Amino acid sequence: LSQRLDVVNPRDEIGRLAETFNTTLARLENSFNRTRRFSADVSHELRTPLTILRGEIEVGLKWAKEPEEFRELMQSNLEEVHRMSGIIESLLELSRAEEKGLSLNLQEVDLRELLNDLIQQLRTMADEKGIHLEFAGALPVLVQGDRVRLHQVFLNLLGNALKYTESGGQVRLFLETENGYAKVGVSDTGQGIPADDISCIFDRFYRVDKARNRAHGGSGLGLSLVKSYTEAHGGRIEVASEVGKGSTFTVYLPIADGLPAGDSGEVDKP
Ligand code: ADP
């Protein structure tokens, strides 16, 4: 596949044809490579929990005697099974979104309420880690959205912000409106993302620091889902980050016609 046609004269018809052929071939090659890498990644991600499961079942059958030992092993087995189910569920969601088959359960959602609930949910985790968590969003902002998926979007972003920020740091969530869009930002004072990695972090299974993040329990699918769900709502996501200083992820979601837009009450058409 890596062979190319020689372009003798790029201006004549044969030359142009050869160039088109070469470009198409390069695209195909790219797509094959991505598919190959994806299959390797899926296999790898599922093999790790399977290896743990197999080891524990073998230990249980061979060595465990007391009911308590069995219980502990079963508990750990269950965690690995949950992990695998989570990976498969996320992959199914991503492929549905790619084939435009994601059916959103649309309803009127007040983002302020949704984000407030999330903050309550994550407060204990932030306190335990010694991270100052705050929410700035004074007014309701209504969008047409799938409550469950939107909850997942902001849970993943806040979860990451807490995960990649050290004790003593800050995580700030804000909700505003801008040109007909609800603008939700998740800002942290954490480790930041190197410039070279930023364009890849939304790829499936991509992690900046492979070894460390596996220990954190992440699958590398969170941000892929965040992006897919946001785009399925007609929105977009932006990220700004600096190593050692922190990151800000900003999600823009269109405010539906006829719904109040919070501060201005009027919205410009995007
Ligand atoms: P994971 O399950 O590994 O967290 P994600 O898809 O959510 O996977 O994120 C992909 C990678 O992007 C992470 O492994 C991490 O390296 C990086 N990342 C995401 N959010 C942040 C953040 N707030 N600060 C620093 N790095 C981040």
TrEMBL record:
EC number, UniProt record: 2.7.13.3
Enzyme kind, highest EC tier: transferase
Superkingdom field: Bacteria
Keywords: ATP-binding, Cell inner membrane, Cell membrane, Kinase, Membrane, Nucleotide-binding, Phosphoprotein, Transferase, Transmembrane, Transmembrane helix, Two-component regulatory system
GO molecular function, one term: protein histidine kinase activity
Membrane topology category: Multi-pass membrane protein
Catalysed reaction equations from the record: ATP + protein L-histidine = ADP + protein N-phospho-L-histidine
Histidine kinase domain location: 41-257
Annotated HAMP domain residues: 1-33
Localization terms from the record: Cell inner membrane; Membrane
The protein's name in its UniProt record: histidine kinase
Organism per entry: Geomobilimonas luticola
Shown segment, full-protein numbering: 212 to 481 of 485
